[in-house]
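Structure tokens please, single chain.
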Amino acid sequence: MRTVTPEPTAADSPVLPDPGPRRRRLPRPDRLYGPLLAFLLTAGAFCASWAARGTFPFGNTGRAINDQANQYVPFHRGLWDLVHGQAAGDVLFSWRGGFGQQFLSDYHTYLGNPFSWLAVLVPRAHVDLAVFLVTPVTMGTAAAVMAVYLGRLHPGPWWQRGVLGACYGLCGWALSDASYIPMWLWGLVAFPLLGIAVEWCLQGRRWTVAALFVALAWFGNFYTAMMATMAACVLLAVRAATLDLTGRQRLQALWRASTATATGILLTLPLLLPSFLSSGAAQPTRAAAFDPVRIEVFLSGILPATHLWGGRPRLYVASLGLILAGSFLFNAAIARRTRLVWAAATLLVLASFQFPPTQYLWHGLAVPNGNPYREAFVFSGMVVVLAWLSLAHRPRPLHLASAAGLLAAAAFLLRHTDDFGGWTVRAVVGGGAVSLLALVLLVRGDRLQGGRRRFLVPAAAVLMAGVVFAESTAAAASADARRSRERWAKPVATSNRSISAHHDAVRQVNGWPRYRTDSGAPQTAYNDALALGAEGPQYYSSYLPEATYQALEPLGYGFKNDGRTFFGADNPVLDAIFAIGARVSPGPAEGTWTAARFPAPPLVTVRSAAFTSPNPAGSVYARQENVLGAAVYQVPRTVRGGSATEQTYAAQCTPGSEAYWFSPDLYGTLAFGGARRPLEDQMTGVVKLGPVPADGRVAVTVQTRTEGATAGDHPIGCLDRGRLDATVRSLTRTGATDVRTGGHSIRAVLPAGSTGTAVFAMTAVPGWQCTADAEPVAPAAYHGLLAFPVPPGATRLACTFTPKGLIPGLAGAALALLALAGVTAAGLRGRRRA
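Here you go.
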């Protein structure tokens, strides 16, 4: 293999004034080899780990875990529907899920990774496969960009940059934390991307492209982009301190970097500002305070191929990178100031992960909800930078051996740490030995000439690439295997015959916007409405508005995640409230689904007067009646008996009515009429028991493991279907005669002479603006639903949804575009004059 040394870059010398226009040079092929090698090594190793585990698409084991199944695949299916003209909604709003919710913030958060658009290029049934492929493609791209960035820091052979770029793309954070989170992985790309922008700012070149790089980082995912931007500030400080610059040059670089960052972020403001405001209006969660892990656990996260349980740091890169980084301080070929500044910056970044104030700073002054070490990729990137600077200055074999010895000693001392894995020992001993051998061969080969050089250097290249590939494949497979043992990470299917049949059944009874279709239970994912093309309440998002929670929770819908996830409920009163006119349920054979159609009021109804239920005010049944506007339940007095673990409830209802149950505080098993069904406290919602027997006695037994909890005073409600049917007919007769929906709007025509309050079957989330006969009206909340009084004589109602912050965000982006255009025009004018 021929060793090619690229030309030195301006990053290795003082920043000089721009000498004037230069001819555009086509990229040399060898400049593409390094990024290509990094991409192939990274993507190949990760896919090889799938094959080793026999996971989909290389086997029958499910690939999707946790939120990948519940959020990311459904949202990508929603994106597919949007692009192919099959969505109920647009990029601003979706009528699918949560009875209509904003979509712009969800798009920015869950679909911002540019490679997410791979999902629209495949048939809808294979969207999940495209989502899985986003991971290796994004990791490979991050490795390729890192290979380019390393060349900006110091020249060196393309294949060495490619191998170390792969070390970064296959870091522990990517393999163990973010491999199933496509939008977070874009932060892995953002770090070296912003590093390149920093170099341009130091050189006084390409300010416009630097600003566009910042925008690209923030468009992909603002959460990890924020961490990468903070890391870029560290890179700027380190480079300004290590390069031979004047004070004026440092200030100019700081000014260029600050303005490029501000301009780039302004370009993303149409997405960023609505997302920020949506987050503030979202249902709050109970995030725990940051609790640093023990120091030995923290340090063990730096060892290669280590997968720690739970919310613990995964800080490692392959042993090749760790050995080279360990030799950095010993490498006398590097200037002392450079060694001290880079090493101090890296250690300070590492220490900041354990210090609560700086941890909150990394996470945008918020308490992380989940793994608190989500910025770990920043440290891995800095380790790879140290490894490259050391390799580019050819460390001595003794220093390499010392670093390898330190790595082995650390593994020995930390061997009793919780969750210390067997693959860590293999990576340190086996991978470390092969890495050391490859580096020694490389150093010796560089000092020789002739045939021995032509043999040693290619051998070192093969060994270095091979050990990174093999070690990272094993690390990824080990992380996948160990993670799958945790209950929350059990892989599930996201495409099969049953899911396809479920989707087809929903389409068969689709009647939107005349009525809604509920995809029914059991659910495949928390976002089934979006994934299956339905319009039910199923919705799971970090942006679920508090207004939606306050509207749905009192009515008996099940929920979890502190109210950011809602489930469906097979309850005809709720169907009437939210205009659900069709539901899908399991068929007689396994994997089959049947659809049922039933009468439903229109999406817009008119309530002539306020209604107060005669039933006990604290019961869920009275709350449903208040929204429906009619008394349809009998809520009897319930007698409780039994023990704490086996509770009995008895009530007397009208024979022939339908009995329902609601007990959000109990977890266990419910038995009625010979049938048993699970209760999962708040997740269960209102449950249909069945017909009331001829003697009118409703007897329920609950076996529960919830200490000290009961079903309350009124868990049983008996529905009079005759009254409900009459109410549905009345709401239909007095409701809208024609309802049409746009992407983020709804229009309705009322019967002439309508008076009272127009109630829309959607929650009163912030952002709606309404008119009656083209005259503005102020929307209000009717028990949590969007409503407003009908002006006398008005028959045409319309409401339009605009995400809060969109208009100011567009204005900010326009200013940023003007700045980019002005700087570009000024640069072109200056070059023409020159």
